[in-house]
Amino acid sequence: MKYDPNSPIQFSEKKHFRSEQSLQWYHIAAGVFVALMGYAIITGLYKRYEDRKQAEQIMAELDKFNEAFAREMEKIQSAPVRRMSPPKPLGTISVRGLADDERCMSGVRLKRTESGWEQIGSC
After folding, report:
1. What is the pLDDT of residue 19?
2. Which among 2, 43, 50, 101 counts the fewest CB atoms within 10 Å?
């Protein structure tokens, strides 16, 4: 066959092949998606049900505790008040100033003697 530039060009038609396998893939993907969404919805509803049931139990226990607390507070408030006397002083502390031959160093009272310093108490 020889090429003739004046002859018309003939193109073949494009053929689209759709096999049943390619359609099955979309069906499988859609089925998995729907199944997962159903699972998520059912799990969420069950979790909400369990949370609500647990909250009701906690509120019932809290109501019992509040009632017992209110009864104890009524007992405490209705009890007679006992007055306590102020504590008695342990003793009086006399503070005297330092004499001319005394010094205070680090909270210790020292007195000058002929041989050095002698500890005589605290200051």
Report:
1. 62
2. 2
Neighbouring CB atoms inside 10 A of 110's CB total 19
Report the distance separating Cα 65 and Cα 73, nearest Å.
12
Q: Is 71 exposed, middle or buried (0-12, 13-18, 19+ CB in 10 A)?
A: exposed
Question: Distance (Å, rounded) from C-alpha 99 to C-alpha 96?
Answer: 9
Q: Is 79 left (phi over 0), alpha (psi -120 to 50) or beta?
A: beta
Please state the pTM of the whole predicted model.
0.39
Q: Which residues of the chain have pLDDT under 50?
A: none
| φ, ψ (nearest 5 deg) of residue 48 | -65, -40
100 with 89: CB under 8 angstroms?
no
Decide: helix, strand or coil at residue 36: helix
